[in-house]
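User: Modeling request: complex.
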Amino acid sequence: MALIVHKYGGTSMGSTERIRNVAKRVAKWARAGHQMVVVPSAMSGETNRLLGLAKELSPKQTSSALLRELDMIAATGEQVSVGLLAIALQAEGMEAISYTGWQVPVQTDSAYTKARIQSIDDARVRADLEAGRVVIITGFQGIDSDGHITTLGRGGSDTSAVAVAAAMKAHECLIYTDVDGVYTTDPRIVAEARRLSTISFEEMLEMASLGSKVLQIRSVEFAGKYRVPLRVLSSFTPWDIDIEEEASSGTLITFEEDEKMEQAVVSGIAFNRDEAKITVMGVPDKPGIAYQILGAVAEANIDVDVIIQNVSHDGKTDFSFTVHRNDYQRTIDLLQNQVAPSTGATQVLGDTKICKVSIVGIGMRSHAGVASKMFRALSDEGINIQMITTSEIKTSVVIDEKYMELAVRALHRAFELDQEPVAA
Amino acid sequence: MALIVHKYGGTSMGSTERIRNVAKRVAKWARAGHQMVVVPSAMSGETNRLLGLAKELSPKQTSSALLRELDMIAATGEQVSVGLLAIALQAEGMEAISYTGWQVPVQTDSAYTKARIQSIDDARVRADLEAGRVVIITGFQGIDSDGHITTLGRGGSDTSAVAVAAAMKAHECLIYTDVDGVYTTDPRIVAEARRLSTISFEEMLEMASLGSKVLQIRSVEFAGKYRVPLRVLSSFTPWDIDIEEEASSGTLITFEEDEKMEQAVVSGIAFNRDEAKITVMGVPDKPGIAYQILGAVAEANIDVDVIIQNVSHDGKTDFSFTVHRNDYQRTIDLLQNQVAPSTGATQVLGDTKICKVSIVGIGMRSHAGVASKMFRALSDEGINIQMITTSEIKTSVVIDEKYMELAVRALHRAFELDQEPVAA
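Assistant: Request completed. Predicted assembly structure:
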């Protein structure tokens, strides 16, 4: 008997008929002797509907008071889901009880709409499991130290599920989603993309952070930090397929690099076009300038991704970085109104028509020449590289958005990702 | 500067445009110097939508576990409303903050779907008011001593508003609704029905409990217990009408029988067809028999209204009472399966085609012959009376449902309710 956490996305919860199927699947696992905790998302479309209503009424100025109310509203989507799933499980003859984030409680900081989980008290949930109940917990949300409702931001239910699995030392956390695993890249872009049966935690972290939409990055971080075995699998298989078959399907995110792991140099190609590039021109090249620029951005709670500082000319340098497109206008305003005047920058330039394409693989650690192979493949296609960043297991380039698909296909081919790798 | 509680129904909250109008109205009151607490209902249709989803998934058997989940789901309707209204007020330039029942907290017992408020801690709300904020509180819901979400049942937002007004010793609680006050009877049935500018708390209590849908009965009980001045007024007046005019519109429910009060013998005619009649035939006429029958019904959490025990024949008697039609089948099952075998009753009969019509008035206390005037008016119309109950300020009859409108019109005419009463 193991403690298992299931997470179901909004599509799986999209109608009462689908919720009934989720209940049947969970009941199958519970009847097989497992202690079950389930974290469902809001019914698909519900969060957008709620935030759409809020947007119609919102003041122009964003304030903490406004963000607090957005969380108050958005959190209800998951609350409805957990109640409905509990009822559906009861109809299956199971004992089931639902909890909101504040009831567990899931403690978070107070960063409304993008809060971070700080701790989870599992006493209440554990008591219900011991009493033979299936426990259903709202994803995406928690409560701060002053008793305000917070949400974790889009995709936050993945993080909730992993955090619960970590707190309860679950045997495995199964993320049911509308894809059947993690692929070498997005199959909608490269038809030859191949499903990976395992991927290392570090690779998954890079894939997630680089725009592979399968898992929310913070959920992968959590899984890594607490070593929660995480499996991504399809919610579209019939609920009554053999439980052993189901338990070994999808992609397992592992922490050991054992022989069973695939030994490709590059495991996958990630990409995103959610970012925008910003360049602050002509700032004095002196100590502290990076902090002066990025400190202000960080204070405004804007996440920065790629950062590049060019070599200086005449004591002046250009400073470039990328932010999420949603934060683009806010960042530009901030730089023009506050940072440029105080730093003496000559100009602030922005470009939203960019994308980032990355190759990811643990094998890059021990193989030289991987990055240059990437640059040549792009060059062969006539694609100009605007920015480059590298880490131990990934290399990313920022290019013109219109070349994204072309670049991904070229790299997938260059690194022979359509073929099963040979053991090293 | 006074502390004022506003309560808005689902129709007033039915769209973002209407919510914006509510915000403008509340802002007008706040700008006039009042400390404002607002209790809005769920957007119209929302509670039905949510419970409809739940019903599609529900097991056949009702259990406490199921009712708990229904409350979990239904409570979200008001949570969305308070968030949206807070945002709309912020857009009006006001500082506003919303709270759910559990955040205030509003403590209730654990009777899911029909919980009762036990206490309200006003410290948090008062601190926000002192800080110049408009405070918006979810109606309809609370939290029990184990931290479970509870709801107060349909119309519970009225009760929440009055309870909050009582806890905070508000100057007045204004219930904005889709009628412009309390009428002598339903104007849809009697065109000559007249709005009362004041009504005594006791009369209002009878009107509410007898089926006048203007206010939920528990809200009137609360208002009476804590002497909260309560005003029912229209939410359809333009938000920018003169505040003095608005503050004296509608119907005020008062606690003093002063000269200003209207001196009619009968103030209004109430009616409902929500009840069903049940008769347990041939039970032994011995001490304890009423308890044996009604105790079992009360244990099943079924409210009983009119109760009549007929005179006995041969040591046997017939015992009749009415319950809400929603509880009818459950009551019949209970009586046939449990009560009849243990009491030796010969038969359990039921009739759902009944209605109750009542005349209400403080003046009945000091005027004889009011009931007989009622019976004659009904007799003149050829309407047979099935059950009669009386209290100090009301007389009710149960009649065939098909005569309801006829009876109400006849009584409205007989007691000259279409005319302003003359001072006594």
